Amino acid sequence: MALFDVPKRNTKETDLNLVKKTQAVKKQNVVRAGNSLIDRIATIKANVERNLGKYSSEFIVIQDEISLHNYILHCIENNAVAIDTETTGLDPILDTIVGVCLYTPNQQAAYIPINHISYVTGAKADNQLEAEAVASELDKLIKAGIDIIMFNAKFDIRVLRNQLGLKDIYCTWDCYLAARLMNENEPSNALKKLHQKYVLNDAEDEFTYDEMFKGIEFNKIPINVAYLYAAHDAKITYELYEFQKKYMYYDETCSPEDRNGMNGVAWVFFNIEMPCVSVVADMEDTGVLFDILYAKKLHEKYSVLLDEKVNNFYRLCEDYSEEINQYLKNNPNSKLEQPINVASPSQIAILLYDILEIEPVDQKSPRSTGEAVLQKIDNPIAKAILEYREVSKLISTYIDKLPNCVNPRDGRIHCSFNQYGADTGRMSSSDPNLQNIPSHNKDIRKMFTASDGYVLMSSDYSQQEPKVMTQMCGDPKMIKAYQEGKDLYAEIAALSFNTTYDNCLEFRPDGTTNPEGKNRRSQAKSILLGVLYGRGVPSIAEQLGTSTEKAQKIKDSVFKGFPAIPQFEQDSLDMAYELGYVTTLWGRKRRLPDLQLDEYEFKWKDGSRLNADILNFEANEDTEVDIPEETIQKYLRKLRRCRFGEKRKIFEEANKEGIWIVDNGAKIADAQRQCVNARIQGSAADMSKLAMILVGKDERLKELGFRLLIPVHDELIAECPIENAKECKERFAQLMSDAAKSRLTIPIKCDVELTKSWYGESVNI
DNA sequence: CAGCTATGCGCC
DNA sequence: AAAGGGCGCATAGCTG
Predict the structure, then answer these.
(1) What's residue A301's pLDDT?
(2) CATH architecture of A15-248
(3) Which of A19, A159, A232, A471 has its CA 20 to 30 A from that of A705?
């Protein structure tokens, strides 16, 4: 947004601020000047021509049907095309398509304008193709079944479906997903960054949309300028694909277990990630029906509750009004407002630790006001703050936010799923995030409902991660427990603590509760889940409400009874140290470069110390002097010998010598924890995606009107017409159970819940 | 204002 | 001595 159209605000703006802003928008080769739209387009035009003008002969604009037809023939001949779409925004449903870019080898990259308008009059620009004409030509590519390469295909697929009506548009190679699989630690996954780094070898800079057109919709950019930018994208997508293709291919003669090469990763690409794209696109297009009226009722209900909580907090503060006033008098510059802002952690910290002088609970962060800390503070104010936060979170993040996310055309929420959101391979959800809707609270999820005449269906994998872990450990006793339908935690407890299975259950056979059994079971559970998360013994002890020593003994017993568990931990660590990465059951990689770090790094304090030998003319003046090996060894010896708490002294000692010691201990420990967790969480993610593919592409379910709505990691939410619920339910459960059969021998059972609204009352059929 | 980090918290 | 994996997002508070 430019300076001139910044909305008027109450705050006074100094001239200095305005000057600073003007300076801030100037960047490199991009100049911003002028205030009117006409001036700004002129500036953009100049920028584009200066930076992309070199492509003017390489790229073409296709403005008639015959040229388009000929280009499509070239694509089919080549059996490959890169496609990119240009739109007025990022919403494939509400925003409009502006043009399509194509590139096929040995041809000029082509831009096909469809919906450009004059930035002066707003009238539709001349010499563009009709959407229908473009659609019918693109349909020929689809019918021919040629390779279609895209970057972040889900978006372009949705645009082409919604804007051009291309129902069967597909993608064979998504460079975004390939890039994520090839290096999930890549600092940026933007097309231009990846192309710049891997195709151009960082030789030249490329400009992003915002750097070129910030704040201007693409349909207002004149065609003779726009094509330079747009066609470029299709071309670099293809070039990135050619780069990736060299490394990611599946060798039939090589098993997916080949963990040294890319075979496992390629298998995941072709058999999990790529087939998943259209399923995810379907879910986003479908959306989920939202009950705005019910949300309004919740707003009323929870607003009253919030008022109560705030008032309760202030009422409790009144007991300390003298102390608060005294504090304000002594600390006139403090951040404490009057009244206190309950939502401000810094003000709460002042209240609790400075005014009420409560002893810090957590020595590591003595001024924390987090939930865990507040729960331990025995003061009604702490409780009041927690209650306030609970309600305010519900209102701001869900009750008041979600209604604004509803698409006015269909009353549904179409969020965005990032298919490779987490580095482990898990999906994520945003705008809004539908994977963190409260489940503990029974009101919130009910805002999501089935379509009229439909019923909601949810199916989850029970104990997905423990099952995956059992499979990867390969422990026969654990596998047997699942095969016999036993409770894994109880079985582990029984065999670890030398007692019977029945003695490790919460309930006795006669239905009465067995506190000792419950305790044994939860101990075994804590140990197993602790391994899964890389949790430390003291933390497990805290969870179990016991001493660290006790927890260590419990862990020892479990590890002794189930040596496959520590063996699996060790194998995972070995794999990561040897190969630099761990793998999932299906071959996805999680690279952990931090594991290769030295525990301590030694650097000169003032950056680099240059070679001080003035007489050594041979030496490059940038040559750094290494820190003498004996000095490094001296400190390493000290650090290895020292007790905890003495580290800092040694660091300071080195500091006085001008040496800066970097302690990588925490990073290495993080990576070690990730070794086990990434394998389990990643394998579970593979499994859930396989289920989505099987369910989402099932022809029979499609016939029945069944559609997936939301994946929540180990759970799939869907809906289907009520009259088909019975068949859908059975087929849904069966497909989910079968999805992981290729690698999981443990029995998988899925129960399907039928409801009218999410987590609402069960519907019987 | 835009954009960043820190803190805190919802989910699996 | 302490030791929880993976996300997205709201608000506060700071900076450019």
Answers:
(1) 94
(2) 2-Layer Sandwich (3.30)
(3) A159
